[in-house]
Amino acid sequence: MEKIVSLxxxxxxxxxxxxxxxxxxxxxxxxxxxxxLKRNIRDLWWRAYTQLRDDVVGLDASIIMHPKVWEASGxxxxxxxxxxxxxxxxxxFRLDQVEPQTxxxxxxxxxxxxxxxxxxxxxxxxxxxxxxxxxxxxxxAIKRLAGxxxxxxxxxxxxxLGVAPDNADAVAILNGIxxxxxxxxxxxxxxxxxxxxxxxxxxxxxxxxxxxGESCWPILGQAQPVTEDRTHCPExxxxxxxxxxRMFNLMLKTFxxxxxxxxxxxxxxxxxxxxxxxxxKNVLEVSRQKIPFGIAQIGKAFRNEINxxxxxxxxxxxxxxxxxxxxxxxxxxxxxxxxxxxxSPGMDLSRPQPNWGWELWHRHWVEQRVQWYxxxxxGRDRLDLHWQTPDELAHYAKACVDIQYRFPFGLQxxxxxxxxxxxxxxxxxxxxxxxxxxxxxxxxxxxxxxxIEPSAGVDRLALALLCEAYCEDEVPDEQGRPERRVVLRxxxxxxxxxxxxxxxxxxxxxxxxxxxxxxxLLRPHMTVFYDESGAIGRRYRRQDEIGTPFGVTIxxxxxxxxxxxxxxxxxxxxxxxxxxxxxxxxxxxxxxERIR
Length: 596
Ligand code: GAP
Fold this sequence. Notes:
The structure is a single chain. About 35% of the residues lie in helices and about 25% in strands. It is an alpha+beta fold. Strand 20 (about 470-475) and strand 21 (about 480-490) form a beta hairpin. Bound molecules: glycyl-adenosine-5'-phosphate. Glycyl-adenosine-5'-phosphate (GAP) binds near residues 305, 416 and 460.
């Protein structure tokens, strides 16, 4: 993953947001190539659904909507994650993302400043009944002083040591120790197997520093072996105790208008879907669509993620591509078609039928989306379909499939395709008081449509495409010697730059003039990068590294006198490095065939 992150920065795919100020966790900027990559993703998705299908229309809604939208959708009350903080390293986690750990939990009852600790050791060493080992004895004694019967423990300790109970110096030391213990809260540290218990002591020392100063003595109450512990920090070098979970709403708040009051609170949308539901009636009226039909939207969404991580995978600002596809309830399908078709393996899911209920529509969309991923270079064998189990499903969902991709950091969700029933429209009808019903002329009934929702993330997909494309291989250099190269094997459809155009030498005006003419010929049809500096091999490598699938080189034959070669160029394929000689007149057609 580090190599991909570094390539993204080096070649201008993705930068940290506000990098000059140290960055802002969970926010990313896309550089020139990243912007092209994302644009290609969006355009291909938009074209596939709103232009190449008759039954999906587009929407571009505002990011901030009436707060009631989020009450109706349930986001105000239920869009919460359980958040925990590590008491030692202060990192924040989502509790459900903390992996189980094994080790020994060392529980500390508090800490004592070294000043008091040393005074106690000296007191023990000077006492008439001094024990042989003063430091362990002191630690044991302090543990008892931390208990509920601290006063009694003080008296017993003085007696045990043979020190008079009214010895003012001794009493002051014990009072000082008790005061330290009273203000230092208990904490525990999980020590992984094979690690020394001193690890826990160092961590506890760090934890207690603010109360008792640089050098202090954490007092170990007990050490207990545990398995499957999720109450400790998962950071490999920490293991500190986690705070009890607190529920944390993920919506980002703002205020609309000049007054920052409760009535003016608004939210940056956490998903694009709700605008589609809220505009369902308007779009229905103007688009002359009939159920079944869908509304598609691409746009920014914001979530105050507790723990943004894995580069852009979990961000606080990201983009979604969502379709709400409205269908008849099964009872209405039954009424109109006489039966509701059931799924059988191998059936044709590409052509919708009047007897399809939610189950087949849902499978249709899963299949459509897998085919779309295939069309941009994420093969079926690179994806995994996770059918959510009943306990994973949202209470209103009938089924949900997560399309997952194996990122370098594990198998993770790219897209969710949910059968959401009539939950959302019913909620908006209830909260707005406006009817969300549809009159079905064929069935002669009125109903609230049900919904199938394919919901994908643009940024996650861009990251998956970068991970899938990244490759290191060896190709022959100009002298035919093997040379290591980094190459992004993007599918030509998503590649940010489609073709590089190179004059063989930059100091030959006839080559440069022709190359510029070829660049201008291609430009109206595709993204072109013109490069005349450096050895031709190095120019190829630069384009390989950013995933440009084709390279066109203008050489001496292009401008020579041989009529068979004049006005021909070499067309190089990024993946095979093979070159073919093609006529300039043919270039646009040949390239368009390969990049579309
Ligand atoms: N309307 C349904 C919905 O929003 P979701 O599973 O929460 O469902 C859908 O989000 C998709 O949005 C995810 O599959 C993912 O691709 C993308 N997504 C969600 N949260 C994200 C985040 N914090 N960072 C990047 N992408 C995210």
